[in-house]
Design a protein that fits this description.
Layout: H1 3-12, H2 25-80, H3 84-161, H4 164-192, H5 196-220, H6 249-273
Helix pairs in contact: 1-2, 1-3, 2-3
Length: 274
């Protein structure tokens, strides 16, 4: 099988099937791309050798054509010298080189067509390999994403199947039971010690607080009248001695009159209330 046939068979293989292979898909993909690259280098060397053959044939065509031209010149020289026999021999040699030039020309033409086809095939293979490299990176990314999803699903399945959450809930229940038992022991110890008076007062405070909260809620709902506000004590202004303020005589007289008026008004209000 030729190099191009091997490359074509390799590229046509379905790379996606490697994902389900028992071997590591990432290593397989890297190895395949490496093999493709190595075979591409071998194909390039073979194409280069074909190009070299084409150039060699072209040079042989030129050489044989030049030889034919040279022998024609010699035949002309023999004719000028009056030696027709020598001229005939030169023409016969010219014909040989001309025939060889035509044969090399035909071979060169076929070789050039083959080289052109090889170049096209080489470019197509190079494009395929570049595409395979890009696809390899995509497949590796898909493989890693699939592995991450599989790990998450396995973890979630393990959590669902295992009794981790049940154990967690059971431990929480045990702690609550321990707290209740501790409170019960404390209550029993208090009752056994004879210090029931403090316990009764605590129960009374709890009951009183609950009653007050219930009354507050009923007032808020309008089922009970609002609680009366406490009466404020009447404002009483104590007389201030005139000599305790840094006032002049006129200001002291004015302040004294204002205090007297205020006190008279307060006395009048008290009489009206009576």
């Amino acid at each position: 099988m030729g190099i191009f046939a091997r490359l074509a068979a390799l590229i046509k293989s379905n790379l996606n099937d490697l994902i389900s292979s028992s071997e590591d898909p990432e290593k397989m993909l890297n190895q395949i791309v490496l093999d493709m690259s190595n075979q591409l280098l071998e194909a390039k060397r073979q194409v280069a050798a074909s190009i070299a053959d084409e150039k060699r044939l072209a040079k042989q065509v030129e050489q044989e054509t030049a030889n034919a031209t040279e022998w024609e010149r010699r035949a002309m020289l023999a004719v000028r010298s009056g030696d027709d026999a020598l001229a005939k021999e030169a023409l016969a040699r010219k014909k040989e080189h001309q025939t060889l030039a035509e044969q090399f020309q035909e071979q060169w033409s076929k070789q050039k067509q083959a080289v052109d086809q090889l170049k096209l095939a080489l470019r197509a293979l190079n494009n395929k390999i570049e595409e395979a490299k890009r696809k390899k990176n995509l497949l590796i990314a898909r493989k890693k994403r699939a592995e991450a999803q599989k790990a998450i699903q396995e973890t979630m399945t393990g959590l669902k199947n295992a009794s981790a959450f049940e154990t967690f809930d059971r431990m929480a229940g045990r702690i609550e039971q321990m707290e209740a038992e501790a409170e019960a022991h404390a209550e029993l110890n208090e009752e056994a010690s004879g210090d029931t008076l403090a316990h009764k007062f605590r129960e009374l405070e709890v009951t009183k607080g609950a009653d007050e909260d219930l009354l507050s809620l009923k007032r808020k709902m309008g089922l009970l009248p609002a609680e009366p506000e406490p009466q404020k004590a009447p404002l009483r202004v104590e007389p201030v001695a005139a000599d305790s303020l840094p006032l002049n005589a006129a200001e002291q007289d004015e302040l004294a009159r204002a205090l007297a008026d205020l006190e008279a008004e307060e006395q009048q209000q008290l009489r009206m209330k009576k």
